Amino acid sequence: MNKSSSVTFSQFTQEQIKKMQEAFQLIDDDGDGMISESNLAKMLRGLGKPDNKEDVEQMLSLAPDETLTFPAYLSLMSECMGEMPDPTEIREALKAFSDNEELLCDSAELEQCLKDVGLEDPAKLDRVLAHFSAKQVSGRRVFKGEKFVQSISE
């Protein structure tokens, strides 16, 4: 394994690697250990998407020989995901906004603090807050911190 692959492996937890390996194996339906153009086209058709040749080629454009091995797939996924902090670190950060085990936080306060520290893409923040927030009986919107942490660490 080359150095870049080992760095990539160290970015992910064992559980994340296992889930990505399962996803890789689903896409690699012929079981040859590589995701090819035909594997991607078949996956897109299975999802009900058009298997546009240009889209498939673009997906493989970063891969040498236009195929993805599992280490190359992990590398690509790490670029797509960015480096995620450890779930424990996220929980500790959310505790600054919450005093309960469910890590319920005031959505407006959390949003403002994240914008104050320079969150680069407010649209992404809005999507996350919408997905993991709920309106309480009091009318206050709360961010479900523990639910968020569990979803990103699965």
From TrEMBL:
Cross-referenced InterPro entries: EF-hand-dom_pair, EF_hand_dom, Myosin_RLC
Gene Ontology cellular component terms for the protein in this record: organelle
Xref: Pfam families: EF-hand_7
GO MF annotation terms: calcium ion binding
SMART domains documented for this protein: EFh (SM00054)
Domain EF-hand, first and last residues per copy: 15-50
UniProtKB keywords: Repeat
SUPFAM superfamilies for this protein: EF-hand (SSF47473)
Protein's name according to its UniProt entry: KLLA0B03498p
